[in-house]
Amino acid sequence: MHMKIGFGLYHHQLTDENFQFARQCGATHLVVHLVDYFHGQDVQDNQPVGGNHGWGIAGHSSKLWETDSLIALKKRIAHHDLELYAIENFDPSHWYDVILAGPKREEQLEKIIDKGDIDLIRILRILKNHRFTGVLIPDHAPLMSCTAPWHAGMAYTMGYLKAVLKELES
Q1: CA 133 to the chain's CA centroid
Q2: Which strands, in side-by-side order, build the sheet including 135-136?
Q3: Ranges of each domain in the chain
Q4: Span 77-99, mean pLDDT?
């Protein structure tokens, strides 16, 4: 088994157009964000970076975990020859003390992966040596200076990941 490359998509990006784009870039799997950070907003950026409206108000997650909704999403994704691999992020209401320095902050922090820069090639070597067969996704890919900044950044990052994995496999 080999490592797989996938896309991470926010709730508003779970569209047939983006599923097709992911396949065109060579993705085989998706990690999806079910939290709708932009509920009711006209989202122009595919990878929002704040702007005037910030990340919006979440909290519309009551139907996100219903079996019928998850099965329907899985079928839509499979229609594009992709596999739903994982669900990323819980609604912020489930970890608000981290954000607001509340009384359960330390307890909730223990469940969030530490942040910081990594040496991607070193990490991929380690994963290969440990026979990791999970899915790698570009997360927070660079926004490129063009009319489709998210798409260009994701394509660039997918190409980089594919090249590094190909080199490691040789």
Answers
A1: 18
A2: 83-88, 29-33, 4-9, 135-136
A3: 4-169
A4: 79
